[in-house]
## 1
Amino acid sequence: MSRASGSEPPSSDMADSDLVQRVAQGDRNAFLALYDRHVARVYALAARMLGDRASAEEVTQDSFLKVWTRARAFTPSRGTLLSWLLTITRNNALDRIRLESRRPAVSEASLLDLEDGRPGLQAPGSGSEEARWRTLRFALAELPDGQRQVIELAYYHGLTHSQMSEILGLPLGTVKTRIRLGMERLREAWMGEEPFDDRSERARTDVNQKRSKAGLP
Amino acid sequence: MRSEDCDRIERMLGAYALEALDLDEQTAVRAHLASCESCQAALEGYRAVADALLMAPTPLLPSPRLRSRLISRLDRARRSRGGLATPGYLPRLALAVGMAALLLVNLSLLWQVRSLRVEQARVAQDLQVDQTALSLASYPSTQVVLLEGESVGGTFLYEPERRFAVLHMWGLDPLESGQEYQAWLVRPDGSRVSGGVFAADPNSLFTSAVLNTPGPVGEFSGLGVTVEPAGGSLTPTGPRVLSADL
C-alpha cells in the first residue's frame, strides 16, 4: 500500500493542482477525487473518438492510471490538469485507433444511447469555463457539415489532409479549405464571443434536433 | 517580422494545431514558426481551440464498474512503473529506452510462456492423477494397499476389474538425469510387466502416478518400483525401492 499515512481526506473544493500533488505522494483519496471530478469528460472524449463503450472505458482507465503513476510529471505552468488529462486520453485513443485501423467513430448523438453511458450530472470546472466550452460546442455544431466533418476527422480520428481527401473522395484543396475556414470560425467564437446565455443553449438543442431528424452526423 | 511566407503559413495554422498537416507541410510550418513571432502569436488562438475541442464532447459517465476496476489496479500500476523518466523530455532517448524495454519484456514473456507451458503440462498431469484417484476412490470395490520400502512409503489404489491404478508415494529421492523410477506389476507366475515410468515430484512431498496395466489389475499378485535408465527397461534391472503384495 502506498497510501500516504495520516493525510486528511481531500475536500471537494480542493484545487486540481493540490490534489495532483497529493496523488504524486500516493494519496488514493486525492486520486479518486480527481477521478470523480473529471471522468465524465475523459470518458466522453474517449467515447467520441472510439465510438464504443468497452474501448472507451479501457482508454479512460489507462489515462487515469497514467495520472496515478506519472503525477510528478504534471507541470501546472503548461496548462490545467484537465487539459493534460484529456491530451493523454486523446493520445491513448489515437494509439488504439491506429493500432486497430479503426473506422471513424459514429457521431456523438448516437453515443448518448450507449447502454451504460449516462450524461454526466456533475458539471466540472468553474461556471465561466463551462460556459466557454458550451460556446465552442455550439460554434462547432453551427459549422457547415463539411467543415465540422473534416475538423472532427482530423482531431478525433488523427487523419491528415491527404488521408481525409482519400477517404472522403474530395480534392485535397477542398479538404484544406474546409479545415481552414472551420478553424477560423471556431477561433473567432472561442476568442471573441461572450459566453452564450440560455437562449443560445435552446438554439443548440434545436440544431441537434434538426440534425438528428435529418439523420446527419 | 512578417515575411512574404506568413500568409501562406497562416493559412495552415488551423490544420497545424489539429495535427492534420501532412509531413512536408508540417515541417515547413514548424521551420517558419521557429523564427516568426507573428505566426507564433496567431497559432496560440488555434491551439486554444484545439484544447477546447478536447472538452467539447458532452460529459458522459462510464459504468460504475470502471471505478472499482481502477481502484483494484492502483497498487500494481505503481509497482510496475519502473525507473523511466517523465515523458516529454528527450523523446529519442525515451524511445530507445522504450524499445529496449519492450525487447526485454518480449524476451521475458517468451520465457514465461515456455515456463507456463511446462507448468501447464505438469498441472494437467497432476489433474489427471487426482481425477483418476478420485474416481477410483468412488468405486465401492476399490482397494488400498500399503507399500513399504526403506525410508520410502506409498499407497496403491486399484479396482480389480480396471486396467489402471494410482500410485501415491512419499520419501522418493530425486534421481540423477538419465534415470527414472519404473513401476512393475508382478504376475502370479513371477514375471514382471511394466506399469510405466515417472520422476519424483520436486515440488511436493508426494509423488503420484497413474499406472496403465496390460490387463485387469486384479490379475496381478504384486507391485514393485525400481530405479531404471531413463525411458524404462523391459524387465527390472535396478535397485527396488518399493514393493507390495496385492
Note: Residues 147 and 182 of chain A are 5 Å apart (CA to CA).
## 2
Amino acid sequence: MRSVLDLGPRARAAFAAGWLVLQAGLVLTASCRSDGIFGFRMFPEASTLEFDLERVVAGVAVPAPGGAWSARDASGQLRHFSWRDRVTDPVLSSPGAKVFAAYGVDAQMARLQRALDDIALHEPEDAETQRFVARVVVWRNGREPQTVVLESASRETPR
Amino acid sequence: MNATVRRWFDEERDVSVLGVARVAFGILLAANAVRALRELGRGYFGDVFHWPLLPEALVPSRSVYAAIVATQLLLALVAVAGRWRSREALLASAVLGTYVLLCDRLQFHHNRWALFCQAFLLSFAPCDRSYRLGPRLPSATAGPLWAARLVGLQLSIIYLASGGSKLLDADWRSGLVLLERFHLYASQAIAAGVPAGVVDVLARPASASVLAKGAIATELFLAFGLWPARTRLFALCWGTAFHLVIEATSRVESFTWLVLASYLVFVRRLPGRVGGAASRPHWWSTS
C-alpha cells in the first residue's frame, strides 16, 4: 500500500536538509536556553542545591519553613499555604532539602525563578505576601557552596 | 559527489530489519504514553506549576490531555501491529508526543525528545513490510534506505552533541563531574550490590579522569564509527556495552533501548535471515 510518507527524490533531499538544519540549529543554540533543551547534552553536571523559601511581608523577610506558611486573606481570615501544593516538580518541591540539580544548576535556577513567579501569581488568597524569596545554596560539581538569592515578581497586596 | 548524494537518497536494499525497529519504537512510544497516563493519575501538570514552550492557550485541559495521551498509546500499538497504516500511526504518535513535550519543559528529557525524533524519521522509511500482524506480503522487501540513514544520522548527531559538549566542558574533561556523581551515588551503588571496593576505586580522581575521557572518546567514536563497514561491528558491540553500563548505573528511562533499536538501521540483515527467510510464526510475517 502506497503511503503519503513515500517521498519522491526531490522531497527526500529537501526533507533531509530541513531536518539537519533544524537539529544543527537546536544543538548549536542549546547554550542560549537555560535548561539546554533539545541540545542532547547528557549528564551535563553533578551539582546539588538546597533552597529555603521566605516571603516578604510589610517589607520584612519571613521564613516559610518547609515551604509552608500562614497568611490572612482579604477578609482577614487566616489561611494555610504550601509550596508543594503548587510546585510538584521532584527537584523544586522540597524546600530545605539538598537535591540533585538535574540538567545542571542553571536549568534548576531558571525553573526555580519561574516557580517563584508562578506562586506569586497563583496564591490570590494570600493578601499579605508582597513577594517570595528563595535563598539557594549551590554546590556546582561538588565545589565550595555558593549562595544565590532569587525573588519573585512583586504582588499587589491590600496592605 | 553528486553520485554519492544521489545514491544516499535513491539506493534500495532489503529493509526487512526496519520492521523490527518499527516494533521497538512503537513499544517505546507505548511505554512512554503509559508512563504519562500513570503520572496523570497522580495529578495533571496543567493544574500546577508548569512551564510551556507553547503559548499557555495551547496547553490542553486535563480531559483533552488524557485523550491525547490515550490516542498516542493507541497509535503506538497500531504502529507495533504493522497491519494498517502503521507508518502514519508511528508518525502521529511521535508528533503527539512532541506536542505534549512542548506543553511543559519541566517534563523535557533528552531521551523522550530522541524517541520522538527517531520514530518520526523512521515513519518515512518502508518499515511496514515486515514483522507485521496478518498475511505475508507477496514481495517487496527491498525499499529506499534514505530515511533509515537519516535515523542513523540523528543518532550520530546525538552522540556528537553529547560527546562534543562534554569535550568542551573542563569539569567533564577533568573527570570532576563523574567523580562527584560517584560520590553522590556511592551509597546507592553499594546498596544495589556493587562491591564497596569497586566503588572505592571508581570514586578516586584518577579513575574518574580516565573514565571521563573514555566516555567522551566513546561518544565521539560512535558518532562516526557506526558508518564505515570496517568499524561498524566493533562500534555496534562497543556502543551496546557502553549503553548497558549506563543503563545499569543511571536512570535514563528508555534511552538504552531506543539506542539499541536505532542500531538496527546499521544492520543489513538479522542473523536469522541470512540466505533467505527465517522460520517465524505465520501471524508475524517477515516479508
Note: The interface with chain B takes residues 3-7, 9, 12-13, 15-16, 19-20, 23-24, 27, 30, 35, 37-48, 85-89, 92, 100, 111, 114-115, 118-119, 122, 141-142 of chain A (CB under 8 Å).
